[in-house]
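User: Hey, my collaborator sent me this sequence without any context and asked if I could get a structure. I don't really work with proteins. Can you help?
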Amino acid sequence: MFSLMRKSFDMTDERPGASLSGTAVGARSEPDGAPRRFKIGLALGAGAARGWAHIGVLREFAEHGITPDVIAGTSIGAVVGGCYAAGKLDQIELFAKSLTKRRVFAMMDLSFSGMSLISGERLRASLEHELKGLMIEDLPIPFAAVATEVGAGHEVWLQRGPLDLAIRASYALPGIFEPVRVGDRYLFDGALVNPIPVTVCRALGADFVIAINMASDGMYRSSVLPNQTSGAKATEAGAKGPFAGRMGSALENGLLPRYFERRSGDAPNVATAMIDAFNIVQDRILRSRLAGDPPDAIVNARLDDIGMFDFHRAEQLIALGRVAAQRALPNIFAHLPSASATA
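Assistant: No problem. I've predicted the 3D structure and written it out in structure-token form, which is a compact way to encode the shape of the chain:
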């Protein structure tokens, strides 16, 4: 099992002069003598394609005067949160809405390194186009992305250095995307250690943390099934198996390589098996982390019908994010101290 220890170290990127620093403490201090202002933190969770709903939540919050003072994100939450902190929410929304099934598949360039199924070079190029030259420490809103150190399993908070590099490390799904090398270490998806980084927001100085949960409400439940092998029949081709709907319509029409396609009877293939295993682990860790350090408020999106690779459904996801935020707003305002109303 992966360790949940936070690792503090400086990491030097392969590009000259670039560095990332993962620390347990990284809040920006107030000017000497200035009164301390109440701070709101947003913890944007993992969720693959479902993470486009973060955009709708942020839009709805903005319309109701909720402006974060610090942001932390994991995986797709780091993508949207990092772009928001950099003032590029419009750009990431336009990119998300421009995605079609065919364009999503075209961006899944196969890897021949032996480290993953997808190299991620096309996604990297897209990120660099929008975020090139942006350093995390220079962003107008303090931001941190969560990643996991390969091998050691340390939780790494990326708070300095190139924004695009930190985001790529945070969403590098093991086995699907290549891990990101930073200095002499490899990093991959932070959802393995901290799916919704509430603790990171608190370390950045947030007094009131709002968690945004993009995990499906009813996808994974901690239940035990009795032995059902007696009289069990093999799933017939075309029937709805236990993995049906997980990857959504993003895998239909034979547009992805064979190892991404469903097998007869919806039996799991290499991609669905890895992703489902990853999501089950993530779900268990998420429950544990939120129980140990619960947020002050939470936005739960209802995304049962959205597949993990349905990136082409951005319009629908953004709308669902708005709905989720609208449901949560009464509770948020009921508990948000009045001191933050003008923050």
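In plain terms: The first strand starts at residue 9 and ends at 12. You can pass these tokens on to your collaborator as they are.
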